[in-house]
Amino acid sequence: MAYKSILSVLTDKTFVQSTLAQGIELARGQEAHLDALCLGVDRSQTGYYYAGANAMILQETLNRAQKESKDLEEQAIEHLRAAGIRWGTESGVAQIADLGRHVAARARFADLVVLPKPYGKDHGAELEPTIEAAMFEGQAPVLVIPDNTPPMATPKRISIGWNESAEALVAVRAALPFLQKADAVRVVVIDPPTHGPHRSDPGGLLSQFLSRHGVRVEIDVLSKTLPRVSDVLLRHAKDTECEMVVMGAYGHSRFREAILGGATRNMLEQADIPVFMAH
Description:
The protein is an alpha/beta fold. It is built from nine helices and twelve strands. Strands 3-2-1-4-5-12-9-6-7-8 form a ten-stranded mixed β-sheet, sandwiched between helices. Strand 7, helix 7 and strand 8 form a beta-alpha-beta unit. The mean pLDDT is 91.
């Protein structure tokens, strides 16, 4: 198993360089093809212009998004041409309410989607629905890159947030190409259940599964000494010098197909190392 088709979705010129740098590094290491979807986003809310708007205002909004898309693609091509990998670009325009449909259509046929962190200063409102669409509707694993993170081909130390959920297991399976090449993988179990079939050996079956795939794995059982599980995971990752966290992505249905659940959102808000997620 390997990542042979990697996708990056670019909606903001601020994050083009860092997102593509990570995508390029992965494409080199995996001998993969990197696609960049460059979307000019109309960030006005649905129905915003309906009262008294005229055709000139609507056309101006469209022209702005089209120019943004073209500028993003030109910037992407400049980076990709010099990378020495197989690559492709595609540009388009989408209203923010319809963004998920375009992202999901491409993510379905990608082995991995590389995206910038959705929260933080000057992070646009479209970054969060982009991640949601890739994971929930596109059913693709996503590698989320925090700001100013050096690109890496293969993380050497990886932490897995393990709670025996289906989402966490999906993420582990999707991350196997990374896990197999890592020098050390830590299965982190926080406050394991005191009842149930795995109470005496939390993380044991996952460790056995990973070992049979050639993964060098250890189990760390921790207490929830901080208010949120994400805080404990990130502190442990820092203490053990991990370069990536693997975890399941949680969501619940609302107006869109799904939106990020609290634990997932907390992790993405606080993480300062790449987070690998799948649903």
